C-alpha cells in the first residue's frame, strides 16, 4: 500500500464533494472583473499555459475564469491527423491507460479493477458489445485544453448521465480509490460509426464545476440524484472527426471504448504518454506520413 497516496486521498472521502464543486462552478463563472482577473492571473502563475495558441491571447479579455479555462484554440493549433475512420485523440492530456478488456474487466491500477457494466451505468446489453474490446484513458490536467472532440466520424445514438462521487482523477487517486471511474459521476456518449460502435465517457471529478455537450448544453450542475438517459436516434446528430462535442471545467478524464476487432490499436498505446487533440490514437500501418491532415 502506498501510504503517501493514502494520506493525499483519504481526506477526499470526508469532503462535501458536490457542495465544493458547486461552489467552484459559481466562482469560476463569476464575471466581477477584478476577481476573475485575479483567478486567471493566479492560474497562469501556477501552470504553464500556452496562450499563443488560444483564439483570444489576452487573459483580461475573458468574461470569467471558466470562459478562460474552456478557451477556444486557433484552428491551426490542433491539426486532425486522421481520415475520419481511424481514431484520433478527443482531448489534450496524458494517456494514462491503454488496455485490452479482459472479458468484461478493466484494470484501473495495481490491485484495482472494475467491470464494463459498472462503468456503463449498469447497461448490461450495451456492455456486452465491448467484451474483450479495447480501452484507453486520457487524463486532462488543469493546464490542458479542456474541450472534447470527436475521435472519428460518427452519429450520436444516446447519452446517459450517471450520478456518482466526485473524487479527483489524478494518478494518486486512481491508484488508491477502488473502482474510481465506475463510481465517479460521468456522461456516457454512444456513437455509431462506419466501423461500428464507439463509446466516449466523460468522467467528472472534484472541482469539475461543469460538464456540457454541444447538443444539450450544461449537464452539471445541478447534480442529479438518479440516472438519466437521452435517446438521439431520431435526430441524426452526425459529427465529423475533430468536431467539438463537449467540454470540462477544471481537470478530468475521457475514456474511449471500442469492440474487439475494431480499432485494436487503441489497446496498444504507450503509457503514460502526452497527447494532443487530433493526434493518432492507433499504432498501426494507417498512422504514417501519408495520413490526411485535416484542419477544423
Shape: globular
The chain-level mean pLDDT equals 86
- The share of residues in helices is 10-25%
**H/E element sequence:** HHHHEEEEHHEEEHHEEEEEEEEEE
User: What is the rounded distance between the termini?
Assistant: 46 Å
Low-confidence stretches: 285-296
Strand content: 25-35%
| Helix vs. strand class | alpha+beta
Biggest beta-sheet profile: 9 strands, antiparallel
Number of strands: 17
**What's the structural domain tally?**
2
Radius of gyration: 18 Å
GO cellular component, one term: plasma membrane
Protein name: Phosphatidylserine decarboxylase proenzyme
Site (Cleavage (non-hydrolytic)): 251-252
Cofactor: pyruvate
Structure overview:
This protein is α+β, with helices and mostly antiparallel strands and 296 residues long. It contains 8 helices and 17 strands. The strands form 4 sheets. Strands 2, 5, 7, 8, 9, 12, 13, 15 and 16 form a 9-stranded antiparallel beta sheet that branches. The protein folds into 2 domains: 14-69, no CATH class; 80-283, no CATH class. A hairpin with a 4-residue loop joins strand 8 (186-192) and strand 9. The model is unreliable at 285-296 (pLDDT under 50).
Key terms:
296 residues, alpha+beta, 2 domains, nine-stranded antiparallel β-sheet, four-stranded antiparallel β-sheet, 19% helix, disordered C terminus
Summarize the model shown.
The protein has 296 residues and is α+β, with helices and mostly antiparallel strands. Helix content is 19%, strand content 28%.
Amino acid at each position: 500500500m502506498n501510504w503517501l497516496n493514502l494520506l493525499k486521498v483519504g481526506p477526499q472521502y470526508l469532503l462535501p464533494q458536490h457542495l465544493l464543486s458547486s461552489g467552484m462552478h459559481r466562482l469560476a463563472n463569476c464575471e466581477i472583473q477584478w476577481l476573475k482577473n485575479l483567478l486567471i492571473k493566479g492560474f497562469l502563475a501556477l501552470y504553464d499555459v500556452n496562450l499563443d495558441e488560444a483564439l483570444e491571447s489576452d487573459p483580461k479579455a475573458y468574461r470569467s475564469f471558466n470562459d478562460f479555462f474552456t478557451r477556444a484554440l486557433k484552428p491551426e493549433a490542433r491539426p486532425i491527423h486522421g481520415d475520419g475512420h481511424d481514431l484520433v485523440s478527443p482531448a489534450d492530456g496524458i494517456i494514462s491507460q491503454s488496455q485490452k478488456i479482459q472479458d468484461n474487466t478493466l484494470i484501473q491500477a495495481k490491485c484495482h479493477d472494475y467491470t464494463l457494466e459498472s462503468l456503463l451505468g449498469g447497461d448490461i446489453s450495451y456492455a456486452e458489445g465491448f467484451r474483450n474490446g479495447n480501452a484507453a484513458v486520457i487524463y486532462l490536467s488543469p493546464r490542458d485544453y479542456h474541450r472534447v472532440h470527436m475521435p472519428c466520424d460518427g452519429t450520436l445514438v444516446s447519452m446517459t448521465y450517471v450520478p456518482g462521487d466526485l473524487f479527483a482523477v489524478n494518478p494518486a487517486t486512481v491508484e488508491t480509490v477502488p473502482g474510481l471511474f465506475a463510481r465517479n459521476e460521468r456522461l456516457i456518449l454512444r456513437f455509431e460509426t462506419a466501423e461500428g460502435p464507439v463509446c466516449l465517457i466523460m468522467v467528472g471529478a472534484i472541482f469539475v464545476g461543469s460538464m456540457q455537450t454541444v447538443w444539450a448544453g450544461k449537464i452539471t450542475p445541478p447534480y442529479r440524484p438518479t440516472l438519466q438517459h437521452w435517446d438521439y436516434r431520431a435526430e441524426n446528430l452526425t459529427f465529423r472527426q475533430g468536431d467539438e462535442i463537449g467540454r470540462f471545467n477544471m481537470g478530468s478524464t475521457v475514456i474511449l471504448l471500442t469492440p474487439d476487432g475494431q480499432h485494436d490499436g487503441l489497446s496498444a498505446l504507450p503509457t503514460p504518454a502526452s497527447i494532443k487533440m487530433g493526434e493518432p490514437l492507433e499504432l498501426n500501418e494507417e498512422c504514417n506520413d501519408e495520413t490526411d491532415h485535416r484542419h477544423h
